[in-house]
Amino acid sequence: MAIREIRVEGDEILTKHCKEVKVFDKKLHTLLDDMYETMKKAGGVGLAAPQVGVLKRAVVIDVGEGLIELVNPQIIDEQGTQEGSEGCLSVPGVYGIVERPNVVTVRAQDRDGKWFKITGRELTARAMCHEVEHLEGILFREHVTEYCEAE
Ligand code: NI
Fold it and tell me: Could you tell me if 96 and 150 are in contact, meaning their C-beta atoms sit under 8 angstroms apart?
């Protein structure tokens, strides 16, 4: 595994639409492993492939309840709302209040291409929405209603 460079706001790659993953090979596994290690070292709870410069639809999330890997994720259900502070490893030092659904169900493929569904609540739901949006080139700033000091 290796730490990869995290791209920061202003880098054009963060504004791009990411491509569907079609090949579930060792290269993808290495990417996911590196993304996890990079996220952990940076102290984040989620990371999307474009944040390490790769325009592929792959995401890792770990809010402290174990690693979730989502390849080609699609949000298929949203319930309720939550309002809370949010940040992003690509927008260092900036936090803002963002409203998100409180419960989110995602359909995705695992690292070997097998489809599954997963439901996340609260911080996990927030991370799912935030990371899936990275795959469309959207940063959380677009949703911030008010900036705040820290998370
Ligand atoms: Ni982010």
Answer: no
